[in-house]
């Protein structure tokens, strides 16, 4: 996708059609998917495998915990990769909830 530094895309936020479409596009471009819902050890192992081989990867997770997000970013950087956080939010207009002002 760019120079020879592998990238890891962190797709954060709740499940949505936009997030699914983004993940599908990344996969079609040859970016390796780390399965959603995998346990933390599996995610780390797969990310390290892709980083060591120089392959771009993406992780599709809720990552609502800022600490978990920071640990993912640190892992990527410690192993020579670059990260890109893509945060998907909820469209409140489609909900039947009052929007706080």
What features would you describe in this structure?
- The structure is a single chain.
- This protein is α/β, with parallel strands linked by helices and 101 residues long.
- The protein contains three helices and four strands; from the N terminus they run E-H-E-H-E-H-E.
- The chain has one domain.
- The chain has a four-stranded parallel β-sheet with strand order 2-3-1-4, with helices on both faces.
- The longest helix is centred in the middle third of the chain and has 14 residues.
The number of helical segments is: 3
What sequence of helices (H) and strands (E) makes up the elements? EHEHEHE
Spatial shape: globular
Task: Note the main sheet.
Answer: 4 strands, parallel
Instruction: Please give the domain count.
Output: 1
Mean pLDDT: 84
Which structural class do the helices and strands define? alpha/beta
Distance from first to last alpha carbon: 41 Å
Helix content: 25-40%
- DSSP strand content: 15-25%
Spans of at least 5 consecutive residues whose pLDDT stays below 50 are none
**How much is the radius of gyration in Å?**
15 Å
Please count the beta strands (DSSP E, at least 2 residues each).
Answer: 4
The strands making up the biggest β-sheet line up spatially as 2-3-1-4
